[in-house]
Design a protein that fits this description.
Strand order of the largest sheet: 1-2-3-4-5-6-7
Strand content: 5-15%
Mean pLDDT: 92
CATH architecture: Alpha-Beta Barrel
Number of domains: 1
CATH class: Alpha Beta
CATH topology: TIM Barrel
Bound molecules: adenosine monophosphate, manganese (II) ion
Order of helices and strands: HEHEHEEHHHHHEHEHEH
Structural class: alpha/beta
Number of helices: 11
Shape: globular
Radius of gyration: 21 Å
Length: 311
């Protein structure tokens, strides 16, 4: 073999080895791409959340607070010295055919003006909704909920989760489940209908911010097959590219169903605990089922794995 073809052969092997190594690292890292801090309705400060994720063995964590990006800078600054990769994210509230859908944005530019403007609009709607919710709860005998929920949110965005916490703390209901089942869930006594972003808007803001749009906890929406297929087609046509196949709220059966949809619609598969607090009411960070082998992970092609290796 002459020296030229030997060089070619070495070069080829080097590429295969590099690609293989990168694939291996990508497959073996622990990804958790859906979590909340107290910038929205989680209870941990962004820094505490990142430290907890690190201690749970998470290598790549997305902070995806509802409709705000406020926790990302603190989370990122905490993640760097720990060698954990922090993926800037968001979970956007969307109204679609009289349902509330959550769309996750991953790897977004947190300074993007279209995204920031869109989220500011949603936060203004939240303020109106908070007042309305307080009024409706008062009508059914639950007093001081507006003040209580605002207090629990510590001046940040107010979610139904804060109302549920207040109602449990004050003994109005036994647990979160009862708070949503009796008062806060869609169509229940104190439910306030709100027009969130349209699906096209939410996906558009995420793409404008250079991110990837992912459908959060798809099995929670309880759509029939026909409607869900229509939803997926519109999501895909709007530029959405991912679906949470693994979510703490999915059963093994639902994981397989969503993996099937991911394949059918050529959507990338995401995984997320949807962690909110360390009480056991929600799943723990990084503790999730394994992605079915035929799924294409959303992190395929991400540079993060390389950075973790260097850290
Ligand atoms: P919001 O975005 O303010 O309307 O609140 C939605 C949040 O409430 C979700 O992100 C969950 O954290 C929480 N939530 C919704 N339904 C339930 C439920 N049935 N049990 C417990 N928490 C719930
Ligand atoms: Mn939440
Ligand atoms: Mn959600
Ligand atoms: Mn969530």
């Amino acid at each position: 073999m002459n020296s030229e073809s030997l060089k070619m052969l070495r070069w080829r092997y080097a590429i295969i080895l590099r690609f293989g190594l990168r694939l291996y690292i990508n497959m073996t890292l622990c990804y958790d791409l859906h979590s909340h801090s107290n910038a929205s309705d989680g209870v941990l400060e962004p820094a505490e959340l990142v430290k907890r994720a690190h201690s749970m063995g998470v290598n790549v964590l997305a902070l995806t607070d509802h409709d705000v990006l406020d926790g990302i800078e603190e989370a990122r600054n905490t993640a760097i010295p720990l060698g954990l990769v922090l993926v800037p994210g968001v979970e956007i509230s969307v109204s679609w055919r009289r349902r509330v859908i959550h769309v996750i944005g991953l790897n977004i530019d947190v300074e993007n003006s279209a995204l920031l403007q869109g989220l500011t609009g949603l936060c203004e709607k939240r303020q109106w909704r908070t007042i309305e919710l307080g009024k409706r709860l008062e009508k059914v005998g639950i007093m001081g909920a507006h003040k209580g929920a605002v207090g629990l949110s510590k001046g940040r965005i107010v979610s139904r989760t804060h109302f549920a916490r207040y109602m449990v703390d004050q003994g109005y209901v036994r647990d979160f489940k009862a708070a949503f089942k009796r008062y806060l869930g869609q169509g229940k006594k104190a439910y306030v209908d709100c027009e969130w972003a349209t699906l096209e808007e939410a996906v558009g803001w995420i793409i404008d911010a250079g991110g990837q749009a992912v459908i959060a906890h798809p099995a929670r929406y309880k759509m029939g097959r026909g409607l869900f297929n229509e939803f997926l087609s519109i999501f895909k046509a709007s530029g959405g590219c991912g679906i949470e196949v693994i979510s703490s709220s999915h059963s093994q059966q639902e994981i397989m169903t969503m993996a099937g949809y991911a394949q059918q619609y050529e959507l990338l598969a995401s995984v997320g605990s949807d962690f909110h607090e360390p009480t056991g009411r929600w799943a723990e960070l990084g503790r999730m089922a394994v992605l079915p082998s035929h799924c294409v992970p959303i992190w395929q092609g991400w540079e993060q794995a390389q950075r973790v290796r260097r850290a």
